[in-house]
Design goal:
Layout: E1 2-4, E2 11-13, H1 26-37, H2 46-53
Antiparallel strand pairs: 1-2
């Protein structure tokens, strides 16, 4: 079965034995990890969205 690598978007053969699954290569896996470590990806939450909508306190 062909799947798309989440990093480079290339089609590659899905293999359960692949050590880089779901990525096509170790390079793509490391690029994705680096993006998480540099905080380029964030997981939002309702609380974070609500806090952004509030006005800052006035002094």
């Amino acid at each position: 079965m062909l799947v798309t690598c989440p990093q480079c978007r290339r089609q590659h053969e899905w293999d359960r034995a692949s050590p880089w699954r779901p990525f096509c290569s170790e390079r793509c896996r490391l690029l994705d990890l680096g993006a998480w470590l540099q905080e380029r990806y964030v997981i939002g939450s309702e609380a974070a969205g609500a806090a952004a909508d509030e006005e800052p306190p006035r002094h």
